[in-house]
Every structure is written in structure tokens, then in C-alpha cells.
Amino acid sequence: MSRILLIEDDTETAEAIVAELADRGFEVQWTGDGVDGLDRARASSPDAMIVDRMLPGMDGLTVIEALRKDQVRTPVLVLSALGAVDDRVRGLRMGGDDYLTKPFALIELVARIEALLRRPTESRETILHVGPLQLDLIERTACRGERWLELLPREFRLLEYMMRRSDQLLTRAMLLEEVWNYKFVPATTNLIDVHMGRLRHKVDGPGETQLIHNVRGSGFVLRSRQ
């Protein structure tokens, strides 16, 4: 049984969500206060969270930002009456995994939660190792053997995503959705190829065995063995 933490201050909305999720076999914990919600998230480690943007005590985005700074990677669905593109983008950039605008159909909310729960569970390790690569998620440093890598924030996130899924084929669509938070993949874009080219140049230095491989027509793979 998956455990869901709901932080929503509108009682009518919250009761409807709790009833729907309970009917579908979820165990739901509910609070209407942002500060209490943050405390419960830290204490109970739920499988997923539903967080309203506007909350008493502490707004929803601040709750999410605080959890991400604590390296808590619980998937979060953000609820909001604010549906403008800028508002959705801000919600995702603050650490939300998905965004649902009010009013919404309960069946869609359930589907989005189920989708979040199907995503690969990321390790809670703070230092990742793949072959000669090491990524320190707390200090935000990266190295290959004795060589330090000077990575931009997006390159760091891209390498982290690839290291967590080493030896797996990662398509451009997957990278756009998971690293750039694109919810709709553009028909044509070279965004991934440009960033991947820069990352490969830093990771695979002259004379070193190539770790990042381009699979023609499919995507990219980070090989764990040299």
C-alpha cells in the first residue's frame, strides 16, 4: 500500500482527494498547514506527496524547496489555482515533479500520482560512483579519478541522472522530461545534443576511455566500465 502525504488547506478539496485515494487502496495522511506538512514529510517518508501552493504557515513551494535542500527526493504533485505557464514552470523548478491546475478531475489526480510512483526510485546516497566517476551531491562536486570536473548546474543534474541509470539507454525525450522538466517534447530541438556535447568534452578527456556514448538514432548511454 503506497503512502501519500496530502498538504491542502481547503477542507472540501482535501476530503474529496482523501476519499478517492483511499478507495483506490492508498494510505493517506492529511494536513492543512505548510509547517506541519514539512514536519510530517521529514518524519514519515511518504511514497509521494500532493502539495497545494497556497498554504497557511508556509507556502507549498517553500515546503518543497526545503525538502529538496534536505536531499529528500519524494515525488511531489503540486496543486494550484494558478495555471499560467510561468506559474507551472516555477512550481517545477522549485522541485515539484508534476503540476495540476484547479479545478481538476479526481481521476486525473490519481493517474498522475500513479505515474509518479512508477518512476524509478532514486537512491538516497549522497555520493554516486560509476567507474572512475564520482559525484558528491552535498558538496556539488564531480571528479573522474584524480581530475576534477568543472560542471555547470544543468550539466551536474544531467550527469547525476545518467549516473543513477548507468548502462541504460536514455532517449532525448526522457532527458527533456526528467532533467529539463519538459512536459511536452518539442518536435525538433538540439538542446540535448548541445549540452551532452559539452558534458562529454568534460567527462571524457584526451586519452581517456570514453564513458558517454551516443547511440545513433536512439539516445545516450553512460557506460559503467572503461
Automatic annotation (TrEMBL):
All residue ranges annotated as the OmpR/PhoB-type domain in the record: 125-224
Record Pfam families: Response_reg, Trans_reg_C
Keywords: DNA-binding, Phosphoprotein
4-aspartylphosphate modification, residue list: D52
CDD domains: trans_reg_C
DNA-binding residues: 125-224
InterPro entries: CheY-like_superfamily (IPR011006), OmpR/PhoB-type_DNA-bd (IPR001867), Sig_transdc_resp-reg_receiver (IPR001789), WalR-like (IPR039420), WH-like_DNA-bd_sf (IPR036388)
Sequence ranges assigned to domain Response regulatory in this UniProt record: 3-117
UniProt protein name: Response regulator transcription factor
